[in-house]
Amino acid sequence: MAGLGSELDGRAAQARGxxxxxxxxxxxxxxxxxxxxxxxxEAAVVVAAISDGTHTGRGECVPYERYGESVDGTVAAxxxxxxxxxxxxxxxxxxxxLPAGAARNALDCALWDLEAKRAGRSAAELAGVGxxxxxxxxxxxxxxxxxxxxxxxxEASQYPLLKLKLGGEGDADRLAxxxxxxxxxxxxxxxxxxxRPEALEGLMACAASAGVExxxxxxxxxxxxxxxxxxxxxxxxxxxxxxxxxxxxTIGERYDAVNIKLDKAGGLTxxxxxxxxxxxxxxxxxxxxxxxTSLAMxxxxxxxxxxxxxxxxxxxxxxxxxxxxLTYKGGEILPxxxxxxG
Length: 342
Prior knowledge:
Elements: E1 19-35, E2 38-51, E3 56-61, H1 71-79, H2 82-86, H3 91-97, H4 102-119, H5 123-126, E4 135-136, E5 139-141, H6 146-155, E6 161-165, H7 171-181, E7 186-190, H8 200-209, E8 212-216, E9 236-238, H9 245-248, E10 257-261, H10 262-265, H11 268-280, E11 284-288, H12 294-304, E12 309-310, E13 328-329, E14 332-333
Parallel strand pairs: 5-6, 6-7, 7-8, 8-9, 9-10, 10-11, 11-12
Antiparallel strand pairs: 1-2, 2-3, 4-14, 13-14
């Protein structure tokens, strides 16, 4: 379906048959979504589209306030690239034009999509990924009371892998309540930087008792040195502490896995390189995303083919999605239709 926001007029320049347009959209979230930083009722996304008059490539991003991003700022950053796009901007040149982040992600994914459509080949083939297979995604439980999260877990019984949003105080009870409500589900958890160092080992023990397989970003980025010195009873995944390949040098021996998100990395191009670098260091890989539509998930689906954990359930959290969108069956995501992306 069409985006649920008003189109923002952008500077669309044309040369060599290429034009860039930028659109901000808002998509309602079904029932709202809460993490340790707060709650929201809608997903605010920005879509970049590049057209040659015959083919159009699209990319979607989610500006994130945690990283100093806003919808207006992202739209402005993309519109400022219109002349360069019109002159035939390449993905390699884009890496020097914009920093890693949401704006570069939207434009990078649009360039991939356009290249695939012009070549009559899939983006997966162009990226050297090969044929795409269904992947299992986590289904996210919004942060709430132990009772509320247990109820969410019971309602999500069709999903074999659940992801718990945690918030610090009360997390031991949340973990126990969800495990009791979903005794057979696999569990991963995301603290979104909300744990305190003095509570870390106790909460790790609770997570281990609940059978949690992975914990994302328990401590704030830049304040996680203690992770190097403790026994990690559950593998710990860097999220806010990892963005692009440059971030790999800073996580040292503190993490066992990295959560690669296209919005952080600045697009599929950098994300593929980041995944390769992480594997070289022996790190496990999670492919994640913000709450967004299927257009944002489709490029990440390529990266998910070789991931240890996948968290691309954004469209399942929305009140409605794009048409065509991704197909979800019993916790698995099927390969994206060409009319959606790639």
